[in-house]
Amino acid sequence: MARRGLAALLSAALAVQSAQAECTVDAMLVFDASASMISPGLGGSTVQRIHEAREAVAEVLPRVEHTRRIGLVTYGPGGPGACSGIDLRFGPRVAAADPVIAAVDAIRPGGLTPLSAAVDLAARTLDHRARPGVVVLVTDGNESCGGTPCAMADRLAAEAVDLTIHVIGFKAVWDTFARSYGTQRSGGFSGEIISRCMADRTGGIFASADTVEELVAALERTLGCLVVGRAEASPATRPPA
Predict the structure, then answer these.
(1) What are 13-22's pLDDT values in tens digits?
(2) CA atoms lying within 13 Å on the CB side of residue 131
(3) Assigned domain for 232 exists
């Protein structure tokens, strides 16, 4: 019994140590600012999706900024073409809440959805070939700029030391090409979007969020650090690479 108890304690200690190590992994938030984000929400809501997404970001980032260094990529507005508005706002940094919130608040949605190229930029910013990293994609729709999210995820998974892509479908429109991931809901909406494959193929989480509360929960789960028995994670204090 003593040996079993010791083995259980060692196993638990290793699990906590592993979770704490995960807390030190840098993350990039990829934020959808395409034109569709000015559309209202579901259920007759007149509030634009961008306002609800900003609300969720403003609530979550101050709570998770101490768990890891976080950077930001946005896509949508700007540039000479509808697919050119991909912007690396900044790479992973300590105390990222204020700059992330400021950037998201200032952005004006426009353009299409080059999410594959935006996620690829985030992975390269993390230097995914050399070190572990996490990408969290928030999108309200599917790739619309000729990218191939599933093939890109396969390539990144093959190249990376340890890259995890989490995908949050925020009020995402259902796509007929995503039938293998679920069925259409009433009203024609579903978080089951084809870009879910990026999470499936890198061991990430796919979360569907139709409300601010659900988006908050999904962001906390993917950007934060879930360590059993700890109220707060240790500050991310590693110096920039």
Answers:
(1) 333 333 444 5
(2) 13
(3) no
